[in-house]
Input
Amino acid sequence: MRTLGVVGAGQMGAGIAEVAATAGLDVLLHDREAAFIEKGLGVIASSLKRLAGKGTVKPAEVEAIRGRIRPAAALEDLAPCDLVVEAVNESLDLKRRIFTTLDGVARHGVILASNTSSLSITRLGAVTKRPERVIGMHFMNPVPLMALVEIIPGQATSSATLKETRALAVRMGKTPVVAQDYPGFISNRVLMPMINEAICALHEGVGTREDIDAVMTLGMRHPMGPLALADFIGLDTCLSIMEVLFEGFGDPKYRPSPLLRRMVDAGWLGKKSGRGFYDYSAKK
Output
């Protein structure tokens, strides 16, 4: 495997492109607008600079890594890729459209992977003529720093595809964990109900935002409290994942908190919007 395609140059896509290029792969990075690709390349440059300052990446290697990442203006430009990872918003319809196009672009036998954090890999594979070569590759955020990758085979995914994808994750310096294709997989089936319950506790006045987060950081040794973490992830993303869990399992324990819905309706999405459970406008 020599060339990796990445669809989506946002925080996750840029991170995936960075770790792939650091591992020696050539990367073609695509987004729907050239400005988004340029922004992603800027994020990668800043990340590499920080890592070089910490000694994680040798300064002499930074330019070589950046040189291995090239923009791809259209999905059709990803035809030379040996594997393509989709890393766009958590919308099943959007991801299906992308996979349908990629299926017609990519060579026979090329693996199509999704960085989805909760959606069905089986449903994504079903819109292609190669469901046996479709798999989930869920990286953790921030990608350059987090070691874990969830590997999710769909109903039709072949054992060869699973083996190759795990090998790629290891090559990229990650530790792969296999999760079955159920809503939320392992990570978000455990994490998101905890975050949702913390929001319910805030809504009911059980504690302040600071007290709730302090209980989990100081009492449970979590590196970040659930409300601060929700802001970091994005409250719209949290709501989307909770809706997938609620719809997929039909269990009321996965019902999204009314406060979470209200904050998303208000546009208070967390760090990326400048306001969530905490106010980030001064930091901006």
Notes: The beta strands are 3-7, 26-30, 69-72, 83-86, 111-114, 134-139, 148-153, 175-178. The first strand starts at residue 3 and ends at 7.
